[in-house]
Each structure stands twice: as C-alpha cells, then as structure tokens.
Amino acid sequence: MSAEGPGEVAIQDPCHLRHAQRVTAEPRAILTAGGYQVVEIDPVGLQRLQTFMTGWWFDEPAIRQTLADVFEQTSLLIDPHTAIGIAAARSTQRNPDIPVICVGTAHPAKFPDAVESATGVRPPLPGRLADLFERTETVTVLPPDRHTLEAFVRGIAGLGDR
C-alpha cells in the first residue's frame, strides 16, 4: 500500500476459522471495493516466485488438528495463525538438520472458541487484559477518509499536526 492510498495486492488469504469461507468467497470484489488493484501473476512470474517462496493453506480440520497436536506435544496453547505456520513448516520437504522457526503472531485468547474446541482448554486473557470485558468501551465514529483518520490517530498519540 502506498502512502497515498491502496496499492496492489497479489494474494489475499484470510485464515480466521469460521470466517474464511465468507471472506474469501469473492476476494476480487472485496479488494477492488477497498480500492486495491488485483494483480494477475503470469505463469513465468509465478514460476520465478516459486523458486524462493512457497504458499500453504489449510482447512479448518487441519488447523484444529495442529492446535490439538501442539497442545498435546508441548502443553502450549497457540492461535490458529500460528497453527497454520506450524502446519506449513511440517508440510515442507526440507533438510531436517536445518531448524525452522515459527513465530506466533497472535495470542490464543484472541480465538478462544477455536482453541477450546481443538484442545479442550479455554485460553485465558493475558494478565494485563484480565479485566478487559469490565472496562468502559469508547467508540468514535469517523468518516471513511484517510486524512481524518490520520489526524485522529495523531491527536490520540499526542503528535499534533505533523
């Protein structure tokens, strides 16, 4: 995305359990409506990308299974995004002497129903957020305008006009 607005998007693959089917049903329409240009990758370009990039996707049962396997093997609760990364790493044919690092990008409590259904354990909120649902919620409705949003965020952050 450029500083002036939406740019080009080559791939759009949301992985939220139970929402992926709804969101990916018409990705071109969603992206185009958001002002993005969908770029077709020609076969030669795709072949070039595949020399150094690999893409994976997993269905809901596979994500659940990975959540359950990781919990059973390590006693760690992970989020569905991390489960996809781990499943992809496990599916890749690679040299077993070279370690793979998978970085978790979300807290499992962000997806409590998915984690609980796969592991039988409902992930608790982190300590600093334990009272999250008792806090007062503040909502500010803004028009869909980038400049208005930027000014609002600058004001909250105490940055003023820059």
Question: What does it look like?
Answer:
With 162 residues, this protein is mostly helical. It has 2 domains: 1-53, no CATH class; 56-123, no CATH class. The chain has helices at residues 20-24, 27-33, 43-49, 60-74, 80-91, 112-119, 146-157, and strands at 8-9, 37-38. Helix 4 packs across helix 6. The longest helix has 15 residues, at 60-74. It starts with 7 loop residues before the first strand and ends in a 5-residue tail after the last helix.
Helical fraction: 40-55%
What is the subunit organization of this protein?
A: single chain
Order of helices and strands: EHHEHHHHH
Write out the strand line-up for the largest beta sheet, numbering strands in chain order.
1-2
Work out the strand percent.
Answer: under 5%
Q: How many domains in all? A: 2
Low-confidence stretches: 1-25
Main pleated sheet? 2 strands, parallel
Shape: flat
How many strands in all? 2
Mean pLDDT: 81
- Overall structural class, as computed from helix and strand content, comes to mainly alpha
Number of helices: 7
- Rg over CA atoms, rounded to whole Å, is 20 Å
Query: N- to C-terminal separation?
Result: 21 Å
Q: Which short descriptors sum up this protein?
A:
162 residues; mainly alpha; 2 domains; two-stranded parallel sheet; 7 helices; 41% helix; disordered N terminus
